[in-house]
Every structure is written in C-alpha cells, then in structure tokens.
Amino acid sequence: MGRESKKVDEETVADVHDLTVSYHIHPVLWDVDFQVPRGKLMAIVGPNGAGKSTLIKAMLGIIPSTTGWVKIFNEPYQKVRHRIGYVPQRGSVDWDFPTTAIDVVTMGRYGKIGWFRRPGKKDREISYTYLEKVGMQDFAQRQISQLSGGQQQRVFLARALAQEADIYFMDEPFAGVDVVTEKAIVNLLFELREQSKTVIVVHHDLQTVNEYFDWILLLNMRKIAIGNVDDTFNEENLRKTYGGKLAILSKAANAMTKGRVDGIID
Amino acid sequence: MTLMAFASFEIWIMVIGALVCSACGILGCFLILKKLALMGDAISHAVLPGIVVAVMLSGSLNSIAIFVGAGIIGVLTPILVDSLKSSRLIDEDAAIGSVFTFLFAIGVIMVANAGNIDLDTECVLYGEIATTPFDTWVVGGTPYEFDGHTFMKGGTDIGPKSAWTLGIVLLINILFIFFFYKELKISTFDPALALSMGLKPKLIHYLLMFFVAITTIASFEAVGAIIVVAMFIAPGASAYLLTDRLSLMIFLSGIVGAASSVLGYMLALALGGDVSIAGCMAVAAGGIFAMCFFFSPKYGVVVRFARRYKLKKRFHAENALVNMYRTHELGERCLVKNYRHNVIVRFIQQNILTEKDGELHLTEFGTEKAQNLMRAHRLWEAYIHKLGLPEDHVHQPADEMEHYLTNDLCTEIAQELKNPQSDPHGKPIPTKPAL
Amino acid sequence: MELLTSNWWLFDEIGKYFLPEGSTRRWVMFGAILLGISSGVIGSFALLRKQSLLSDAMAHAALPGICLIYMLTGVKDPLLFLVGASITGLLGAIIVSEIPRHTRIKSDTAIGLVLSVFFAFGIVLLTVIQKNFGGNQAGLDAFLFGKAALLVRYDLYVIGTMCLLLIGITLLFYKEFKLLTFDRGFAITLGLPAKKLELCMTLLIVLAVMVGLQAVGVVLMVAMLIFPAAAARQWTDQLGRMIIIAAFVGGFAGVVGSFCSAIMSKVPTGPVMVVVCSTMLIFSMFFAPNRGLIPKWLRLRNNRQRIRRENILKSCYKTCEERENWKVIFTLKDFTTYFRFSNYATRQLLHYLVKKQRLVSFNGGWQLTPQGLDKAEQIIRKHRLWEVYLTEKMDIASDHVHRDAEDIEHALDDKTVQQLEEELQSPTQDPHGKSIPNVDFSRERKTT
C-alpha cells in the first residue's frame, strides 16, 4: 500500500497518521491524517464538538488513541517531551488551588528539574523572566484565583514558555480573554514563529484567523483541509466544516459504541 | 408453642428488615439518580444527635418527637451543606464530609455520656434488629405498673411496634412517590426544566431529604445509622442496572430490598445466628448489587463481555465470508484449505456454503449475506472518501465499520452519496438486496 | 466529680503528663500528635483533589481488612492490621473507580455503596469475632470510634514509623503531587506517570487511616483528613504552608482530643477530636484574615459605607449643579428623604464626611467643602464618562445607561478613567446633555 511510501518532509515537525480517538469508546475523531511544517502558526478550527481539543490531547498522549500514531520531530512524543510545550484550557484546572502565579510558571520547569529535586534559584529566575515576558511580573506572588481570566491565561502561557520547547500546543488560549491579553498572546506567537518554533492553537474565532495564523487545519470529526491560510481558509472548506451534514457519522459512531460496549448491534 | 413463637420471631425479623430495605430503597432510587447518594449518607449520620436529644426528652425510641427532630435535621443538613458550599470556602465534597462527621461526632459523645437511656454505641452502629420483634404493640389491654415499668395485661398482640412504624413509613414513602411522581421525575432529570414549568424543584428536593431523614429514623432501631446507607443505595443501584424505566426501577428496588433482608437473615443464620443481622442484610444487598454488576442481562459486565466475545467471533466469520465473496468476485477458486475448519462447518450448517471437491461455493443465502457486508464496506469507503480521506486510507476503517452498519444506515449513506455504483477503488457496490 | 471540686483540677490534670506515672498519657498524646500531622499532610491533597469522601469510603473499608487479618492470625499487631486494612481499603478504592467505568452508576453512588457495604461486612466479622474469640474483641471494638488510652509503646513505634514514611514520601514527591493535583493533563505531558502517582497518594491515605485507627477509629477518620486541611486552607494561599498549618491543626486537635478523653473516660477519643477539629475549622472560616467570613463581611460593609458616602457627595453636587449655586446648605431631612437611610445611619455618614473635611457643618446643616466638591466631581466624572462609553461604544440606548453607571462609578480606578477619556476623546457632555466636569471646569468654578 501507499502508506509507508508517504513522503515525510524534512521540515515536518508533527506528523499525525490515521489517528482515531474515542472518548469513553465513543469515536470523536476519525482517521485524522496531517503534517505540520516547521515554524508555522497553525490554527485548528472547527465547530463545537468537532474534536479540536481531543486532537491536541491525543497528540500529547493525555488521552489514548484507538488507532494511528503521532510523531513529533520524527519521534514518538514520549521521546521528545522536553521539546513540547502545552497550554491547557483555562477551565480545565481549579483556580482556587492554593498557589501563586510564579509557582504555576515554575511548574513549566518540572520536566527539566526531574524527580526528587526542588526547583532551584535558577529555575525561579527563568520563570520570573517569562512571567515578565507576558507582563505579569507585578502579580508574581498573587494567588491565582485573584487573577482575571486574561491574567490566568497569561500565566499559563508563561508556564508553557518556561518549558522552553520547540513546539507548542495551545488549547483555546484566546477563550474569554480581554483585548490586551489577546494582543499580548498574539505578539508572543509571532515572536515564537520568528524563532522558527511551531505553534498549534485550537482557535474558535474565525474573524482573526487570517490575521493571527499562517497555517490552518479545518476539523469536524475528521480532517476537512489543511494548508496555508490563504489557500485553505476559503468559503467552500468552511462550509464543509461548519455546514457538513454529519448525521451519518454520528449514527455510525453510536452503532459502533453500542457494539463495543454492550456487544449489541441492532 | 415455643416453636411457633420462634418461627414468628424469625419471620418478624425478616419482615422488619424487608420493610427497612424497601422503604429506604425506593427513596434511594432518587438519591442515586439525583447524584445525592452521599447526601443520603450524610443525613443518615447527621440525624444521630437529633435522635439522642429526642430519646433523652421522651425516654423512648418510638415517639413522634424523634420524627420531628429528625425531619428538622434532615432538611437542615442539606441546607448547611449548601450554605457551606456557597460560601466557597470549601468544596461540596468536603462540605458534606465536615457537616455529617461533626454532627455524628456530637451524637456519639452524647450517646456515650447519656447514662441511662435506651441507646448505646452498638445500636448506633448496627442496630438491634434481633430484639425488635419482642417490643410488640398490644391493643385493648389494661396497663399495670410493675417494678417501675408499665406493662399491659390482656389485650391483643398485633405485632412488633417497629413493624408498624416501618410499615407506615414505607406507605408514606410510596404515597409520596406516587403523588409527586411526575415532579420527582422532572426535577431529577432536569431541574432547570422543572423550575421553568413552575414545579418547585427546590421544594421537591427538600421534601425528598425530609423523607430520607424520616426513613432513617424509622430504620434506626433496626439497623443503626451507618448500615442504613447500604439500604438506601444498594437496592436502587442494583435496580438501576436492571432496567431503564424509572417506575420499574423503583418497583425493583423494593423487591431487591426485600430479597436482601431474607438473604441477609439466611446469611446470619449460616454464620451461627449470633452475628449482626443488619450487617448481614447490608452485605446481602451488596452481594445482590455485585450480582447485578456482573450478570445483569443488559448492563452486566460479564454478560456484556460474553456478548462482545460472541460479536467478535461473528466478526471473524463475517470477515471470512467477505473474503470468500471477494475471491469469487475476482473469479478465483475459493479453497477449503484457506479457511478454518470450524468456520466452514458452521457456514455449511447455516446454509451459507456448499462444499464440493475442496472448493467452496456460496449459496444464494450466503451470497446475499456477503453482499450485504460488501455493500456496507464499500459504501463506508465511498462515504469517508467523500469526507476527505484519501483512497489509500479508507479500507481499514471500512473493514471495521462494515460489521456495525445496519441496512437502514447503508440506505441512508447510499442516499447521501446519490446511490454510487462503485467504491473509491473502482470496485462495484452491490445493490440493496431484495427483502 | 471529685475533680471539679478542686479549683486547680485542670492544672492537676495537665500536671499528670509530667509525672512518671503519666507515661501512658504521654504516649497517647504522642500518638494523637502523629495522627494529626499525618492526616493533616495527606488530607491536604485529598481535599484539593476533592477526594474527601473517597477517603471516607477507604477508611470504612479498612474495618473488614482488620477483622479478617485478626481472624486469620489471631494476634493484634498494628503492622498486620496495616496489611489487612491496606488490602481492603485499596480494594474499596478500586471498586469505587471501576463501578462508574463499567456501568452508568456514578461515583457518588459507588462511594456510598463501598462505604456502607464494606463497613457492614466489617461489623458482621466483628460480631463473629465477638462470638468466637471472646474477650479479645474489646480491642477491635476500639477501632470503630477510637480509644487512644489503649495505645501502648509498641503501637506508637509502628504508627511513628508510618507517619515518618508518609511525610517522607510526601516530601520526596511533593512537586509531582502538587502538579498532578493542580493540572493532571499538563503533568502527563511532562511525562509524569499519573496513574502510579495517584495510586501512591491513595496508599498514603490508607497509611494515614492506619495511623489514626486506634485514636480516632474508622467511622470518623475522614474528619481528621478534612478538617485540619480545610481549616489550614483558610489561612494561606500556598500549598506548602497549607500542609504545615494543617499538620499543626491536626496535631493540636490530637493534644486537646487526647486530653479531653483522658479526663472523660467514657467518651471515645475519635468524636472528641472531631469536635475539636471542627471547632477550629469553624473558627478559621469566620476569622481567617483573607477568606474568613467576618473579615469579608467587614470589607463588604466598608465598601458599602464608602459607596453611600460617595452617593451623598454626588447628590450634593447634583443639587448644587441644578441650582447653579455651589454653596447650598443641606439639612438632615434632605438626606434621609432622598436616600431613605435611617437618621442614625445618615448622621454617622455625615459625621465621617465632616471628619474627612468633605463637608462642613453650617447652621445646623451641611455644605460641601472644596475638597468635597473635588471628590464629588471625580465621581460624577466617572459616572458620566461611563454613560458616554456605554452609548457610544456599546450601542446602549441613553435611557438605559444610568443604572449601570451608578454601580461602576464606585469601582473605576483613575487609570481606567484616563483610558476611557482618551478613547472617547475627552467628551464634555454626557448622553443626557449634562456637562462632564474636568480639571479646567473645576478651576473655573473655584474662582467664581
């Protein structure tokens, strides 16, 4: 078959092959297959429930995938963890957790510190630099629940920067943030691109895609299209992404779930 | 005469146990569905200080005062938990945990200090169901004093007091569920909808808590404050695994409750009779739940596993069938040696295949079956190809999906694709077989 | 009762700890302190992971394990009990996590089920032991509600070791536990073995339950996990400090609880400790400086008073503006009828304003001072700027903006006001046609 012979570009930093992901055995992503070139700012765009976050989580091994594989820098992600940065959805953590902003940023260093050791002075200094970079240095000792949504997002971003990675995965970093934060995040993204780092962002605001990103993946339970924004982000693809009738896909998913869980096929 | 009395005493224990389990069980259904199981746990612990105070004041475990006190605490506990939660100082989980442990601890201290009342720590923990049949209710007798206690002379013995109390509480619970069935159902399923329909889900919620507390009190003498939690949760949870209908679930939880009581008593007898009967009943209820967990016809883990195994075997057979069809399609000979013996035997039994000189032929019935599968496979290939998957990626998903696609779904896909004649690889898609 | 006859009985009781014959009391106290520390430490994680009630189920599930081990071996050894309790406790935890995975039963039901059924099983075993093993059962009975007085030196060595082990493991994996508790997904991307670490934390809970077994008992053990941690949470916003405070709270409860039960022989130790701990939680919830309800209420009250004072100044300003006379004298009645405050409350507010030189008493009435006028102007400016902002930038009809501006005027800081003014290009009139006071205007007014 033609699978093995698929040409992998040298500049490909993330290679996703036929990834199928199920949430509680219910398939949410079907055979997603794409590559991301180096130095791109890529938006993952699609309607609610399209599996955008699921895709990122599956790529990072946070949730298991049913079939397919992911390679980052031509290696399985386990081997290149130190080169990966991650910004989870802001709503995924309990912000009432007793910790400070600087502490959260230092968590980005944990992968580099290793087992049994405490973050040292150097780690704290590095963390502070990144907190400064997102303009949050004045809030370093603030309890995280006392920060606004935008500020919390910036702390998360600083944490990812503290990972000093080569590829970043961000899950809806623009959700519910103020204009100032959005600007700050975008500037950071551009800066990362200048350092020829790759950033994959789950994005929901179609209006800003052209302005912020140069690469785009349109997703709705399956890959609709991927490519540079100018060619790919067009009306036809958007219609396929947002207007496509997927009743059959979800019915099939239901049938499959029922068969796998209960062993019943009607 | 002695034998008769012993037998009726045994029966009364089982009856009282059954009344406890069913009265708790039918309310437990709503606790489970409303995700309030732990609130039920909390209430049953928290009523203890109420009971102790009432017993101190009235001197007996069978008084109206206890029910009043318990009712108040029953409503107070969720209110306390809710207000702790809304202060946002601690989470719901910890709020429940702190409210009931605090009240329970106070109750235990009071029990330990309250010298000459009819309560001790054992009773709090696991009740005294074995003694309940002897505290009977006599009507029509004349009271007389002896040794400082009041006894009845003459009259008719109409059975243990707890049986009467529990019977009445069970009846009240049934009536509560009967009259508020639709309100309970909607406010369990969708409180927001209930609110918009003017059904006062909050009121229903607190009414439910009130009845939980009342039932706890009625059961207290028989099973204590902790084991009653099992009576609330286990029957409902078992019933939840047996049926999808709420009314049936409530009915079944009552049955499971009664069965737990009988089985539990048997267990206690098997262990020598001199053990905690209430504990045995709870263990039996847990055992019934375990049985349902593994063997419930629809949701049982083992049953589902067996079904999945059977399905997997069917998939293997279907794969073989598709393979044979493909071989025929290519005009090649389908040889016996390429297939597993038992598959062939079964296919021949099912009139799918005929065998002649080491070569296999599909019967008309077999062809039809194979065509159905082939159709599903190729339609799915065509469908996901249209969704944007390249043609060298469609085979594997279709190989799996072909087993799951029903005829209706195939028709739907065919319509969506405007009845395609061939799959992405150019192979023909068999038409819908005549029914 | 004899004790109470002496005025110094409390000191006598405390004194007993220092006498040679008070060694039992000292052991008991040590045991209770160890318990408080270990449950405070691991309880903090259980609380933050919202697993308090799961711990409750595990504590209850320890009972059958202890009984089974005793029935098998016939000896009362805390180490053996640890093995038994760990097995059933862990089994309980596994069942709680497996039931919702395989069926539609939710985890709260699973917790309640495991808690009550395991406990009932334990009770059955306990009664079996009572029947078959005779008097020895008295010892096991203490595991229900605790009986610290029964602690002997050997028990103490064992629970001391467990406590050290627990603290040691927590220190070693502190960083990992913290990250996992805060952000599981992120922890996984860093390559932390989430499942193994979670199992480790579950085992630590079992360990803490074992430490507290003889002092508190299985029924109320969960309280020792919740209360110190929840109380500590109120005093600090940092996990490290929270754990240390929780350990102190737990240890203190241990001391007080063991003392109380030493002088009240009838009462089991467990419930006493729970009451001590819960009192500390209640105290913390009311009085902790940042999160406490009373400081919070005071802050709210101060803020409300400030808003009221600002409203008084504002109303004065508006009246002056209407009458084009900046020296209007207001009577008490003006304020009470306008604001519907009580006389007393109004007098208090006015008194404060006079003290701050915003108003000045004048002929039995009050008049705005220049400083008061400045302050009032600032508020009015915020109000009217916000109204302009709402109508111009948010497209809200001008007759809908007043109510909103009433609230925001008290909350806007100077920096935001400046931004607002820049964005709106220094408007001079609000949507209702009233002028927006600015620096020039105020100078002009002062000179007239």
Automatic annotation (TrEMBL), chain A:
InterPro entries: AAA+_ATPase (IPR003593), ABC_transporter-like_ATP-bd (IPR003439), ABC_transporter-like_CS (IPR017871), Metal_Ion_Import_ABC (IPR050153), P-loop_NTPase (IPR027417). Residues 14-246 form the ABC transporter domain. The keyword DNA-binding does not apply. Keywords: ATP-binding, Nucleotide-binding, Transport. GO terms for molecular function: ATP binding; ATP hydrolysis activity. The keyword RNA-binding does not apply. Pfam families: ABC_tran. CDD domains: ABC_Metallic_Cations (cd03235). Belongs to the ABC transporter superfamily. This is Manganese ABC transporter ATP-binding protein. It comes from Uabimicrobium amorphum.
Automatic annotation (TrEMBL), chain B:
One of its GO terms (biological process) is response to zinc ion. The chain crosses the membrane at residues 12-33, 63-81, 93-112, 162-182, 203-220, 250-269, 275-295. Gene3D superfamilies: ABC transporter involved in vitamin B12 uptake, BtuC, Winged helix-like DNA-binding domain superfamily/Winged helix DNA-binding domain. Its main location: membrane. It is a multi-pass membrane protein. One of its GO terms (molecular function) is transition metal ion binding. SMART domains: HTH_DTXR. Keywords: Cell membrane, Membrane, Transmembrane, Transmembrane helix, Transport. The keyword Disulfide bond does not apply. It is found in: Cell membrane. InterPro entries: ABC_BtuC-like, ABC_TroCD, Fe_dep_repressor, Fe_dep_repressor_sf, Iron_dep_repressor, WH-like_DNA-bd_sf. Residues 363-431 form the Iron dependent repressor metal binding and dimerisation domain. The keyword Membrane applies. It holds the Pfam family Fe_dep_repr_C. One of its GO terms (cellular component) is ATP-binding cassette (ABC) transporter complex. Belongs to the ABC-3 integral membrane protein family. PANTHER family: ABC-TRANSPORTER METAL-BINDING PROTEIN, METAL TRANSPORT SYSTEM MEMBRANE PROTEIN CT_070-RELATED. This is Manganese ABC transporter permease. The lineage of its organism: Bacteria, Pseudomonadati, Planctomycetota, Candidatus Uabimicrobiia, Candidatus Uabimicrobiales.
UniProtKB/TrEMBL annotation, chain C:
GO terms for cellular component: ATP-binding cassette (ABC) transporter complex. It is a multi-pass membrane protein. One of its GO terms (biological process) is cellular response to iron ion. GO terms for molecular function: DNA-binding transcription factor activity; protein dimerization activity; transition metal ion binding. SUPFAM superfamilies: ABC transporter involved in vitamin B12 uptake, BtuC, Iron-dependent repressor protein, dimerization domain. Keywords: Cell membrane, Membrane, Transmembrane, Transmembrane helix, Transport. This is Manganese transport system membrane protein MntC. It comes from Uabimicrobium amorphum.
